[in-house]
Amino acid sequence: METIGEKLKSIRKSKGMTQAEFGESIGFSKQAVSNIENNLSNPSIDFISKLIMYHNVNANWLIASVGEMFNCTQNQLKSLKSEIMTEVELILKKRGIN
């Protein structure tokens, strides 16, 4: 069974990020990411919450190895973002805001 550290490394690598970039994306240092990836420390609840929230990580996979790594694919996320932006633009137009 994979450790949280191994899972974190898989997530980070799948996003093509360095430890510093990944840590910065969730408000933690490169050293914090490195320590967790190398199983020298356990992630805090805050770390796990931000990881799940900001990187679309499936909590069931992270904690219990159930399901897929991410809640939805990158293509699904892009499509959803596009749909949201279209809706926002329509709302702004209706209110006369350009």
TrEMBL record:
It comes from Candidatus Galligastranaerophilus intestinavium. This is Helix-turn-helix transcriptional regulator. Keywords: DNA-binding. It comes from the Bacteria. Residues 8-62 form the HTH cro/C1-type domain. GO terms for molecular function: DNA binding. The lineage of its organism: Bacteria, Candidatus Galligastranaerophilus. Pfam families: HTH_3.
